[in-house]
User: What shape does this take?
Amino acid sequence: MGSDDVNAVLHYLATNRTALWALQTGDRGTLSEEIKEGAKRYNVVFRENTDPVRLIATWATNSSCPKGLKDAMDEYRRQRQQVRKERTAFLTRTRLYIAPGLQIRRRAALKIITVRKIPSSYPSYGTIIADTREIYDKWYPHFAHGKQADCRLKRLPLQILDDRLLQIDIGPNESVLLKDESGALLGFVLRDFCPDRGLLDWATATAKLQIPVRRNIRKEDTGKLVLMGYSAGSRSKTMFDWVRNITKKMTEDEKARNDMAGSVLFAVAWQLMKSQVPQEVIDDFNDFVSSLGIRRMDRCSEKTSKEEESTGNVHREANVKVTICDTKGGRGRLGFAMDDKEFEFTDVQLAPPSGVVGQNYSRSAEAKGADFLMANIGVRIRQASNTAIGWRPNCNHGTSLPNCNPQDENPDFEQTGLAFVTSNRLASAWRKYQAGVISREEAEREAAVEETAEDDGDGEK
Assistant: This one.
């Protein structure tokens, strides 16, 4: 292939509007076809799998390259640089990714509170807590005389919180790390966790899609909590499978779309976690997944067609859409459409295998609700929107009641959130199954946990 042959192809492309437009916009497919057409006309042969943009970039350094083609290459580079700037600004604005060095500096700047384990947990295990007399009076009839989801369970006592017995009271604007006297991490509180309002509204709307259509796993508690991701099933039907807890009448396609919306929600939450929470927490989750060899939360891989995308909810007011597709081996391609801009990120790590979504949920021993309580160290974390809280699974944790009437079906108070959870029993059964000690059926029987049963030590983080 001589220089005259190459120049002939270059001049062909320089006078071809389709080729120039394809180069400026980075349309490699169209550009490749136009190069092939030019090569065919002038009997020029190129190597297979040649990147057309890189090929022209090499040609553009030649003094004989036509000006029109050089200008198109310059425009392509300018647009690529602009896209990089916009991607960087998007990631910075949303905190979906923070450079490792900046992550270290941000975490180092967090306030550290050293706490000690108190002799006796406060509030005590199994006690329902109201922050004030006003809240106590609103909820007392409900807990003392209201209908129980399971009348076999003993009614729990209701108590007004005594602030004097708390060791630490974390304000609604404080971000802190909680450590014990040896320096080990006990928990964290991160405010303004997702600073982008549009993405936050999308996440809230997507979470709300799950609440009305799925089975409540804690019927004896106030509010609602639903399971997402993979589950070992119930005692009546044990299996390692994607959770099947949709109770509303839906087509299979509607169920799949709802499942995928939840899968995308947790994928986004996981990116926010990875960029902000202490690294040891992320490492703990990753070790849990890798040591067991179980799947991450990937509803897309459950579909029969590899070409189909899993699409998150579109929050119209915020003009936000999030998609995930091409998932394999716990990773996938995550796309965002926001503010008339589209961004795509490849090789994104998906969320751990299971989690819960809750709304106005409160439990005496463990959960989410109004103010969050870590009873074995006497810590109260004041309720505030857009907050991430983490704690050790063995921590006796709970929440105080929200200031609303339990009989009000549309209270002014509304709290929606999600949590990543890990199951000790699932982990134990899966390890035995992987080692060949027990069969899959035996593993399923051993790992089975009835979803309405009381907590058996599963961890929430």
In short: DSSP finds twelve helices and 19 strands in the chain. The radius of gyration is 27 Å. The CA atoms of residues 79 and 108 lie 37 Å apart.
